[in-house]
C-alpha cells in the first residue's frame, strides 16, 4: 500500500468538499453591508414626488427595505408575503422602486395591494448600486440604529419570514 | 408511442450493460470462455439499442412532438429543422443520451478493432466499459429521462437556448463528448491491466491509439468551443477560464501527459504506475467536469439547469467509479516492476519532467476552479477566481514545457549526450533568438512577452522542421516513408508552435475600440477604415434582428460590406450578438453591434486581431497530428507480426 | 518654424479631448474587464450585456472623469458587492493557498520526481527485466497463440 494510497485519500477529501458544495448556493453573494450602517440617500417618494425620504427618518425602528419593480416577476411572487408581513405582523416596510416607470409602479401597487409605509423612486438605480443590489427583489433588515442586519436575495418566502426574518426582527426589537 | 419505445430501449440497454459488465469480468477472472465471448456481441447490442433510443428522440423533435417534456422545453414549431435536430443534445437529458451514444460507440469500436488482442483482455476492457455505461444509464433513467411525457401536451414548445442556435454549437458537444468519453477506453484498459496484473508494454501499446484518438477529439471540441465563444459572445475573447471551459481543459492537460507517458511505457516499459494513474485520472477528471457542469456547484454561462438530485447522483457515480479505481490502484500498484533503466539526461527523464509540468498545470487549474467552492464550504465567504489568476499561474508553467518540447524528440532513449543535443538544437536556438528579438520590432512595438512567445514558437517549429529534414537525409528516404506516429508527433508539436504564435501575436497587438457610430461616420483599425452605413431590421425564423451595414475599406478602396447582427429571440430576453468578421488567415477585422443609442447611432465594438486564426489552426494541426499517429501501421499489425514484435521487445528490454 | 509651432499647439489642444474619449474608455474597459458581473455571473462587467453591467460601466466612466484612481474604483465595487466582484483574487490569508498552491505543487512534483529517479537508479541498476515480467510476457505470448485461428 504505502504511497499508492495517497491518490485515494486525496480523492476522498475532494468528494467530501464536492458533497458539501452541493448544499451551497453559488449564485447568492453575501452582502458586505451586514452589520454596517445602511447607506444614506434622499429620494422622491413614489406617491408624491415632491416629498423626499431618507433612511434617517426610520431611526429607532426596526424596518425592512424591500427592493421591487413592476417589471420584476419574482416581486409579484413575493408581494403577498411582503404585504402580510406588513399588515399582520406590523413590520414597517419601505419599498425601493428600482429602475421603474412611475405610472406603471403606481398601477402595479393598485392592482396587487400596497403594504408599504411608502415607496421611493430609484429611477436611475443609483441607490440600488449603493446597496449592492444585483437581482430584484432583495430585502434588507435594518435595526434601530440604522445598521443592516440581514439581506434576503430573491423572492421572500413564507418559510424565510417564519424561520429567519421575523425571529430576527423580534430579537432586534428587544 | 415512439418515445416510449426509446425509453424501453434505454431500459433494455441497462440490463445488457449490467449483464455484460458482470459476466465479462467474472468470465475473465474464472477463465470461462463462454462468458468472455459474451462481451463483444453485448457491446454491439448496446450501441444499436442506444442508436435506436437516440433516433426516437430525434424523431420526436423532427415531428415536433411537444408531449415529450424534453422536446417541449428545447424546441418550438418555428425552430428550423437543423436546430431541432441539434436540440436533441441541447439540454441536460438529451446531452446525456449523446454521452451514452458516444460511450457505447467507443465500446463498439473496441469490440471491432481488437481482433489482435487476447479475448480475455477484451472482455475485461468491455466489462469495465459496460459498468460505466450502466452507471450513466442509471443516472439517465432515474434522474434525467429525456422521454418523459407532459400531460396534457402543450400546443407549443419553449425554445432551444438561443446561444445554442448556431452551427458551432451543433458540433461542439459531440466532439467534446467524443473526447471525454473516449478517455474511458484508456481508463478501461488501465483497469483491465490492473485487474489482470499485466501492466506491461503491450498494455501501453494497446491503449495508446485509443488515448490519442480521445485526445484528438477533445482538442477539436475545445477548439470549436473557443471559436464559438469568440464570434458568438461578441467581445472577441477566445478563452475565458470559465469553470466549464476549465473542466474540459483539465482532462486535456492530463490526457496530454497521458499520451506522452504511454509512449515511454510502450517503448521502455517505464513509469507504468504513473501511466496507469494518469489513465485513471484523465477519465476521472472528465467525470469531474460532468459533475461540475451538471450539479450547479459552480456558476457558469454554459451550465445546465440544475436539479439537486442530479448533483447527488452524479457525485455518487463519480465517487464509485473513481474511488474503486484508485482503491484497485492502491492494491496493485506496489507490485508493478520498474521497467528499463535510464540516465538523468534521457528522453525518459525529459518526458517525465513534461509530465510533472502538465500535471502541475492541471492541478493549478483545478485549484483555481474549485477554490471558490472550498472557501465557501469552509464558511470563509465568496470570492471569484478569474482570468488574471489563471494567466499568472498557467503561463509560467508552460514556458519550461515549451522549451523542453523541442529537446524531447531529439534526445535518445536511455541516455542522451548533451553534446548531441547541442548539435541538434543550436540551429533552432539561434533562429528562435533572432526571430524573438527581431520580429517584434518589425511588427511595430517591442515587448518582452511577445519576444518570449515568438521565440518559443520559432524554437519548436524550427526543431520540428530540422528534425524531419535530418531524418530524411540520414535515412535517404522521403517524407512518406517516415513512420506515421513519428510524423504525427511532429505535426502536433508544430500545431503547438502555431498556437503559441497566434496567442502571442493576438495578445500583443490586438486593438479594441468601443465607439459610438452614426450613419456615415468612420473608425479605423489596423490600417482599415470602417464606415457605418446604418442598421436595418430583419425577420428571422424565430427572431428579429438588427443588421448593421458596415463598409470595410483600405486606402479608399472598398473591400466588402460587413453585417454584424444583434438578434432578439422570441423566447429569450437576452439579445444575441453575431459578430461580423473579415478574415484572411493573418488577421481578423471583427465588428459587433452594441446597444442602440439616440439619433440612430449605435455603440459598435471594433477589434483588430492579428493572427487570431492561428490559435485554431494550431489546434487543428494538433488533432491532425493525433490522427496521423493513430493511423500508424504498427497498430494494425497482424497477429503473427505482433508475436514477432513481442519476442523482439522481450529481447531488447 | 512658425508652422512647427502651430502643429505643436494643435496637438496640445487636441490631446486632452482625444485622451478623454479613447484613453478613458480604454481605462474603463481595463477596469471593467477584471470585475465580475453579478447578474450573468460568468461574464465581466466589460463584456456583459446585462442592465446592471451597463450601469456599472457608466459608474466607472463617471468616476474616471472625477479623477478617481483604479484602486479607488475597485474599492467602490468591493464595498458594494464584496470580494466576489474581483476577478483578480486579492492576496489575503484565505487566498494564500490559492496563490502559492501551484508553486507548492511544482515543488512537490519536482521533489517526487527527484526521489523517484534516485530510487530507480539504485534499484533498477541490475534487473533489466524482472523474472516476473518475463514470465508474464511468455504467458501472454502463449495466450495469443492459443486463441489464434
UniProtKB/TrEMBL annotation, chain A:
Superkingdom in the source lineage: Bacteria
Pfam families reported for this sequence: Redoxin
Organism ancestry: Bacteria, Pseudomonadati, Pseudomonadota, Betaproteobacteria, Burkholderiales
Cellular localisation: Cell envelope
Annotated ranges, domain Thioredoxin: 32-174
GO process terms (BP): cytochrome complex assembly
Single GO MF annotation: disulfide oxidoreductase activity
Family in the record: Belongs to the thioredoxin family. DsbE subfamily.
GO cellular component: outer membrane-bounded periplasmic space
SUPFAM superfamilies hit by this protein: Thioredoxin-like
Protein name: DsbE family thiol:disulfide interchange protein
From TrEMBL, chain B:
BP term (GO), one: cytochrome complex assembly
InterPro entries the UniProt entry points to: CcmF_C, Cyt_c_assembly, Cyt_c_biogenesis, Cyt_c_biogenesis_CcmF
Transmembrane segment boundaries: 6-29, 41-62, 82-101, 122-142, 177-197, 209-229, 249-265, 274-293, 313-331, 352-374, 394-413, 425-443, 449-469, 490-509, 611-630
Name assigned to this protein: Cytochrome c-type biogenesis protein CcmF
GO cellular component: plasma membrane
Protein location: Cell inner membrane
Keyword Transmembrane helix in record: yes
Domain Cytochrome c assembly protein: 89-295
Organism this protein belongs to: Nitrosomonas eutropha (strain DSM 101675 / C91 / Nm57)
Domain of life, per lineage: Bacteria
Record keywords, A-Z: Cell inner membrane, Cell membrane, Cytochrome c-type biogenesis, Membrane, Transmembrane, Transmembrane helix
Function description: Required for the biogenesis of c-type cytochromes. Possible subunit of a heme lyase.
TrEMBL record, chain C:
Regions annotated as coiled coil: none
GO CC annotations on file: plasma membrane
Signal sequence residues: 1-19
GO BP annotation list: cytochrome complex assembly
InterPro entries documented for this protein: C-type_cytochrome_biogenesis, CcmH/CycL/Ccl2/NrfF_N, CcmH/CycL/NrfF/Ccl2_sf
Membrane spanning residue stretches: 96-114
Top-level division of the source organism's lineage: Bacteria
Domain CcmH/CycL/Ccl2/NrfF N-terminal: 19-141
One Gene Ontology term of the molecular function aspect: metal ion binding
Pfam families, A to Z: CcmH
Key words, A-Z: Cytochrome c-type biogenesis, Heme, Iron, Membrane, Metal-binding, Signal, Transmembrane, Transmembrane helix
Family of the protein in this entry: Belongs to the CcmH/CycL/Ccl2/NrfF family.
Function: Possible subunit of a heme lyase.
Protein name: Cytochrome c-type biogenesis protein
Organism name: Pusillimonas minor
UniProt lineage: Bacteria, Pseudomonadati, Pseudomonadota, Betaproteobacteria, Burkholderiales
